[in-house]
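User: Second chain of the day. Same drill as before.
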Amino acid sequence: MKIEKYTKLKDNRYSVKIDDLNIKLYDDVIVKYELLRKKEISETLFEEITEYNDSLESYYKALKYLNRKLRTEKELFTYLNKEYKKSVINNTIERLKKEGYLNEETYLKAYLIDQINLSTSGPNKIKKDLIKLGLNEEEINNHLSKIEDSIWLEKLNKIVAKTISTNKSYGNNKLKEKLVYDLGNKGYYKWMIEEAIKNNEFKDNTDIINKEYQKNYNKLSRKYSGYELEQKLIAKLLSKGFSYEDIKKVLSEN
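Assistant: Same format as last time:
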């Protein structure tokens, strides 16, 4: 294969014309294989040169990707797999691990700090998310076990308090059911949720039930009246989590 032309580029690479091919090679490749002294290369050497160039390109792209934020091996493999073959990616990952750019324990610690301070996720969801990212389940459990229950409960208390303060349409019964369901999906254990609900004071339903009564009355009274309207209103308000006693009271007042 005949080397016909070199063109120096701005990003530490050369554009090299070999036969009818134009390829971009890093300075390191040019130096390693002393290409500036050669006018011809074999196909075997050409394959070796391009693979070594791919390994450098993979490494530099990985560094840039890691510079944005910490990544797991699985994330990095998925990212590089779009362009490079498995052997190149594995070599890149091994090099990055040796150089300290990829470290599972460092990632775990940083991830947990972020999730505790910046998210509403609970321990179970965090664990599932980390497993999806390719981290070792035993190591995840080990790090999670070091976090005090009081930290999760403090987070939960804030979430529950905020939910209560912003609630504008649910009765306390329904609101508690919703909290159990929503917080369970966020990865908190049932005992934690029950403890947080017990620790927070739920406000009086009067304003909310009056508002819900008026809203549903305006809608249902267009179609129903008398006893049928009353039963429809009761069913609607019960579904919102208001007690039957509170519903009867608001009906009698209106």
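The first strand starts at residue 3 and ends at 8.

User: Great, on to the next one.
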